[in-house]
Design goal:
By secondary structure, the chain is α+β, with helices and mostly antiparallel strands. It is 32% helix and 28% strand. The protein has one domain: Protein Transport Mog1p, Chain A (3-Layer(aba) Sandwich).
Length: 158
């Protein structure tokens, strides 16, 4: 049964990405964790300078202006991250043109959102932080593998 009153996944993910600051000073800033080289590799095209939103979100725009990549880090301490992930995945799966799947072994719990609109993301919980890696390009098995590998590298730095 669809829950029409639920906040769309996009709004929830945006709120996670718009958090004013990374939770503690020991957490690296998002732009320290996502390099231009990695962003270029994931997008398959050159990117410009990143936009840093108070350390919590790092966004790169393709120099041709038609695609973006973003990494967001939000504090999830005091919440049930596993439950939050399940709710987000359920909400995403109800969006038209969207599929989701869990990703074993990435963080404490994670899932991939694939959209026909090419706005794809991996959302995960790791050590009381919720991370979102969003890539705007058609999903392929190679892109999925590269996104997972990128997040493994990010998690190693947290």
């Amino acid at each position: 049964m669809r829950t029409h009153a639920a906040v769309p996944l996009v709004a929830v993910l945006f709120s996670l990405l718009a958090i004013p600051a990374v939770a503690d000073a020991a957490t690296p800033k998002a732009c320290d964790l996502l390099s231009a080289q990695t962003a270029t590799s994931l997008l398959g095209a050159a990117v410009g300078k990143p936009t840093d939103m108070k350390g919590a979100t790092c966004t790169y725009v393709c120099t041709s202006g038609n695609a973006t990549i973003a990494l967001g880090i939000a504090d999830s301490s005091g919440t049930d991250g596993a439950h939050d992930i399940q709710v987000l995945q359920m909400m995403a799966s109800q969006e038209k043109g969207t599929t989701t799947k869990s990703i074993a072994g990435l963080g404490e719990q994670s899932f991939l959102v694939t959209r026909t609109s090419n706005k794809n993301a991996i959302v995960l919980v790791y050590h009381q932080k919720m991370l979102t890696l969003a890539v705007q390009r058609p999903m392929t098995p190679e892109l999925e593998k590269a996104m997972v590998q990128t997040l493994r590298q990010v998690l190693a730095k947290l």
